[in-house]
Every structure is written in structure tokens, then in C-alpha cells.
Amino acid sequence: MAESPETETGFPERIRVGISSCLLGEEVRYDGQHKRDPYINGTLSRFFELVPVCPEVAIGLGVPREPIRMVAEKGEPVRVVGVRNPDRDVTDDLQAYGQRMARELSDIHGYILKRGSPSCGMERVKVYKPDGHPLTTARGAYAGAFMAERPQLPVEEEGRLGDPVLRESFIERVFVHERWHREVAASPTLGRLVDFHSAHKLLVMAHSQAAYRRLGRLVAEAGKGEIGETARAYFEDLMSTLAEPATRKGHANVLYHLMGYLKDHLEAGDKEELGDLIESYRTGYVPLVVPITLLKHHFRRHPHPYVARQVYLQPHPGELMLRNRL
User: Fold this and answer.
1) By the 8 A CB rule, do 209 and 256 touch?
2) Are 104 and 58 spatial neighbours (Cβ–Cβ below 8 Å)?
3) Which of 127, 162, 197 is the last residue of a domain?
4) What is the pTM of this model?
5) Which residues pair with 79 in a beta bridge?
6) Shared domain check, 281 and 133
7) Going by DSSP bridges, is the β-strand pair 111-113/155-157 parallel, antiparallel, or unpaired?
């Protein structure tokens, strides 16, 4: 997987991320229109190199074209067929293309899919009975095949990026995914795995105490087995853990943990102020950026080598302002 050149901030210049073409404004939808997303094309395009894919066009469906939908009888496999001509079944073509692109796009670190699409929808795409009545929901045919081939890849739908928690979770995972492939995956060693884990400990802790302990044990025992297998197991568990967004309780636990490194340096008033801010965050009165900013201030005055390495304090560029709304 290709590496992304780093900027002076330590973050890659731009990370390659796959995306449904219509979200970039390409007129590839069945009706010849697009679904250009302002946030993606404005903010995210500054940090992500967006790689457009339209599976429906790629498998030979024209523009404009007959719309397709997902259809199934109860208990039967879901098929993707034409709305007016149900004999036109493109399921196999979409799935095969998803598998192919999962291999060809080996250098992407995330994927943004079009919500509700029978080809690209990540989840809850409507499945109809042959008579046109709703039956259930499923994952789009292309998206399902792609995601099955790349289960650790961060994937999200453009509609869900409007939720501050889901948006931060997705972007956090994209940066972790890129960092793993840049620092460890290409040539895993015990030292690289230990260094990576050491820098991401508090990030993991914010998501899951159980995973924090589990991954710690895995790294501690890494020298006993084949390092490539251990690294793969670590990464699978890590990405699965990060896919569940951190809660206020989880973040507050990490903030108090960080505060412990300052206990011998802060005066009573400073400790009280910091503790009050952490509680204000935990109870929902201030966003995460507030106690994080104060912690960074104190650690600039009282540096700690372990804390200085922690990705948790800056998991993504501050310009994205993701923690301003958490």
C-alpha cells in the first residue's frame, strides 16, 4: 500500500479515500444527475484525495438509465434488478466489480458511499418484494462485496457524516488506518508494533477498557509467535474496536488518566479547574476540545515523554474541528 507523504504537522498531506462518484458532483446517476456533497467537496477534500468510483457505470449501465432496486422473496437471496425490466439482473456484475475494486484500490484508507443506493449503500438499503412492496433492508451489492473483501477498511455513508460522533469516528479511523500501513504493515517487526501500540494506547482506552487490556496482552506476548500473524490479529482487533465510537464516559476516563500525570506539577486551583472541566465535558456541558486544550496547555509547561507520544491528544488535524462538537 502506497505511503502518504507527511506534512510538518506529522499528518499525511492527503490520504487516498474511495468515494461514490455522484458525491463529487459527477453526473452519473440513473437520471443523469449528481448528489454533490458540500462538506465532502469542501472540508474533506482538503485532507483526503478522493478517488471516485461509480459501479453502475463501470459495469456498463448507461447515463441516463433504467433505475435498479433490490428485490427478494422472503427467505430468498437478494437480487439487484431493473425497476421496469426485472429480468435485467446486475447482481453478479456488481458483486464481481466490488471484489475487483477491493483489490485494485489497495492504497485507499477509507471509503465514503452513497446512502440508500442498491449498489453503493452501506446499510439499510430498501429491499422490495417482486410486487413492489417493501420487504426488508440490506447492504448494496457492490458495497457488500467490497466490504467483505476489506473488513478493516473504514467505511461510512455521506448522510451519516452529518452526525458529529459518526463523522469523528470515521475520520479518526481513516488516519489510524493510514498510519498503521505507513508505520507497520509493509514490514512488521516487534519494535514497530510496540511503538505503534504505545502511541495509540489512550485512543484505544477511550473506546474500550476491555480492548485496551486485550491489545496490551497481545503486544506483550508478540515475541512468542510469528510477528506477521500477530500484527494482523492486532490490526483486526484495533479497527473493530475503533469502529464503535467512544462515549463521553470513555473520553472522560482518558482525561482523568492524563490528569494523573500532572498531579505532582499542578497547584490545587489548577487541579480543581481541570477536574471541573472534565466533569463538565462528561456531563455534556462543554465539548471535548475544551478539557483537551487545557490538558495540552499544562503538558506544554510540564512535558511528559509518554504523553507526548499519545495520538489521542491529536488524532486528526485540528483544522477539521471534529472535537469541537463532541
Assistant:
1) no
2) no
3) 162
4) 0.95
5) 71
6) no
7) parallel
